[in-house]
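User: I'm curious whether this sequence folds into something compact or stays loose and floppy. Could you predict its structure so I can see for myself?
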Amino acid sequence: MIHRIGSADSSPRDAAHPRYEAESSWLFLGLLGSFFIGFLLIISSNHLFSRLIDELGQKSANERARLFIGEEITSSIQGIELELYRMVTTLGVMGQRRIQAQIEQRLDKLRGDLQVLREGGTVQRMVQLNLEGQDQMLREVFYTPPPGDERYVMELIELAPYLDQIQNKSTELMVMLAEREQFRTAQNNSGLLDSEQRIKGYLKRVPPLFVRLNENANRLFFESQNHLSDLEAQLAEQRQRYRTTEQALAVLVVVLVMLTGFMFALQINRSNRKLHRAWDAMRAAKEEAERASRAKSDFVSRMSHELRTPLNAILGLAQLFDIHGLNPAQAEHIEEINKAGQHLLELINQVLDLAKIEAGRLTLERIEFDLRALIDSVVGMVAERARVQGIALRVVVDPGLPARWRGDPTRVQQIFINLLGNALKFTERGEVGLRVEALTPGPGVRCTVHDTGIGMDAATVQRLFTPFVQADESTTRRFGGTGLGLMICKELVEAMGGVIQVESQPGQGSRFSLRLALEALDSVDGVDSVDSVSAPPLAIVAPTTPAPLLSGHVLLVEDNRVNQVVACGMLKKLGLTVTVAGNGCEALQRLEQERYDLVLMDVQMPEMDGYTATQQWRAREQHEGRLRLPVIAMTANVLNEDRERCLACGMDDYLFKPVKLSAFEQMLRRWLPAPV
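Assistant: Here's the prediction. I'll summarize afterward.
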């Protein structure tokens, strides 16, 4: 039987009652008519009140312009009075003439403002924007005399004669001041004294003149102020009436709608309440699930880091033992330590992948890789296990399969290893096979993993890809495992745009078929198909020359004592000289004191972490023009964002803890100079 993973059921909807549909139609028409009538009433009242409010607003604006002109007239009168007194205290004919010219300008402006009040027009004034007077703004108002309004004509007539008197007084004062200057120049003290007495007498006659002038000006605009207050009161009253009318009409429309559509609205409200309750419950459940998923993902990430640190010590120290120098019992114990540690690491990785998937943080790379080489690597990893179990391992690679592809090689390898490992786990005799071929037509790869194991029934297949689930409890106890491998495989395949299918019968084995949406980068390279059967006898491998030991000086930056011992042991075993720094600050000091070929940098350390230390060292290199020193991160943080952060701060590569000696050596050979 074939089962495709990922199907959904649909449920039929209930049909509406015809009578209810008819009633709803009539109620809807009633609602529409009510809205239309209410809309017409609101539009009509809005038009009427808008016209009244606009007229009152225009009158108020015109009256404010009249007050503005009145302020200008009062300001000019006060300025002229001050200029007359300033003219008396100013020495020198030139200064006195400048003041007289200013008085003439103010008188001209007064005449212009009075003309605007009579005939209409525009008045301008510079307004200061701050106390210092540095910033000014030109303000301009336009005034139109109300037609047929003669209330202010007499006041304007009373102001005009005073302007001529002011001009005459200014001229008279200028003559007296000139006469005083002549007496002062001729040093005629008696004449100078008489002139001063005449000027004082003149100044005594000035205040009454301006008092009468100001009284007439103020009387001119008191009525205007009262009229503006009346207009503003009327405007406020009309606006209040408009708001009240609008509210009354709105209430009327609402009542009409409620009367004509009560049943219809009741039905809608009932449905809406149910919908909102369901939506709120769903949203609350979703938010709670997301919070729980994020908390679980963060917890798993932290626990993964904390578990990888001691596991790095266990596996690292086990790898440092020289197997050939131990007796058989000791060598077997070391081998068991390695197996148990690798199994624990596999469980940690599976739980971390599950947390990434549930939190939506699973990301895939798109890089070039050699699929044939990847298949050879996978076969090499599982061949020894098949040999020990006495199971034939058959691998068939289509000769038409291109070698170079673009995708995520790490995840593709993980899928192959999980499926083959799962097949070997549940197969006691017979064979396990892997077949890989290119999809035709269309891009991608088809992979098939089959076995002659215990098989599964339909019920087991339906729940096969559920986390922590295997065939049954007895199978779990018999074969072990967490039930996460296949679930993770399914998520990875679907994340790559593929699909996975299962065919199985109890006692007849299982067949997993999957399609991976990978991008081929070249055509067939002419390699023949591989049909290799790995039976109990091992294939004979030609002897190879061991790679020469590495050479160079490495700075190890690590705060954990046990990790220092493990890393130093591996580096020395590979032929390298090691210097240890306990944190980022100490590392920067040692980099200044001595030359190194490579830096192995932990990221979480006291005083200064690896990110900061790397950034500061890169800045020093750039500032001093030094050659770039390779910096490789050694961290127990295995999330993609952790790797991206390492590269972003200036590190060149990264190693995840626990570190395998073979991967460690491969990484070092990539970045260290080749041994001579």
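Summary: The CA atoms of residues 213 and 665 lie 105 Å apart. Residues 1-20, 472-477, 525-545 have pLDDT under 50 and may be disordered.
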